[in-house]
Amino acid sequence: xxxxxxxxxxxxxxxxxxxxxxxxxxxxxxxxxxxxxxxxxxxxxxxxxxxxxxxxxxxxxxxxxxxxxxxxxxxxxxxxxxxxxxxxxxxxxxxxxxxxxxxxxxxxxxxxxxxxxxxxxxxxxxxxxxxxxxxxxxxxxxxxxxxxxxxxxxxxxxxxxxxxxxxxxxxxxxxxxxxxxxxxxxxxxxxxxxxxxxxxxxxxxxxxxxxxxxxxxxxxxxxxxxxxxxxxxxxxxxxxxxxxxxxxxxxxxxxxxxxxxxxxxxxxxxxxxxxxxxxxxxxxxxxxxxxxxxxxxxxxxxxxxxxxxxxxxxxxxxxxxxxxxxxxxxxxxxxxxxxxxxxxxxxxxxxxxxxxxxxxxxxxxxxxxxxxxxxxxxxxxxxxxxxxxxxxxxxxxxxxxxxxxxxxxxxxxxxxxxxxxxxxxxxxxxxxxxxxxxxxxxxxxxxxxxxxxx
Length: 454
What we know:
Blueprint: H1 11-21, H2 26-30, H3 42-57, H4 80-95, H5 107-110, H6 114-170, H7 177-241, H8 247-453
Helix pairs in contact: 1-6, 3-4, 6-8, 7-8
């Protein structure tokens, strides 16, 4: 008791626990604190232990009183009183080590003490609390197992539906196969044409870039020519102010000016021709850009259709991956189901074997009980015969007691009469003795007188 591994509870807590959790009916109502303190009652303690054994092992209290009667047992009726106590003692000796109680003795049933009884009941109470917690954990595990089985069924249904959808998406109906082939061929042609048009557009873009660079160069040259023209005009005005009256110099200057003007006109004409050519090219570029915009719109539509097809292909791949994942999950769940079925089969086999053993034991017990009941009936008949004999003997004893009583009364009366006679005789004997003594004294006097005379 000094090295216990569980708490020692108060008597009130013990009484409330056993009234609510162990005892039933009238036993719970009549069980009070007075049954444990100050001195525990053996009947109440024995009832508690019987109910604990029934709660844990389903061993009914009336089964403790059954004795396997043998032929070599003399006076089996004498064993009935001690059989229940010895049965409870042996079973509690087997059970209490589970509660960390190792010093249970027969004296704890016949003459229990307060501290030892509270210690044993606290150990049983701690074990019952532990048993209740483990049962709740097992119930949670059973509920989780049922939920997992339901999830497995839902996953199987979802996998089957996904497989059906994948089959519907991947398989083309026979009436649409020709159309699908035509669409595939048209898609291939559109891809080839788009690639070719992409190449053409890239080439035209390159030519447009070259033309733009050339136009920029021409415009730069035109600006330079305009600057030169403005400079020439300034020179002309400056020169006009410096004109000398010599005609030769004037003619030479005029010729130079005419040549420069011709050059400038030729350059302006060339630039105008270049500008016209560039404008024509720009118009052609605008037309080509409009055509390219149309092609670009068609390409965008084609790209959207390609993206939609890619999205569908991606969804199909995702569904395939999900299907593979679900297949793996299904295989894992199937393996778990097979394992659980094996475990369940093993458990069912064990339970079947245990049920067969229990059935055999039950049949043997029933047979034994029938034999015991037959022997009990014989014992009951013998008891009844003995009771009849005892009643006869009690009647005879009562008659004898009555006779003895009457004889005692007669004897008392006779003794009273004898006592009266004895008293009378004693008084008469006393008188007689007195007379004899008186006569003796008289004779002695006479003898002395006669002796004196002689």
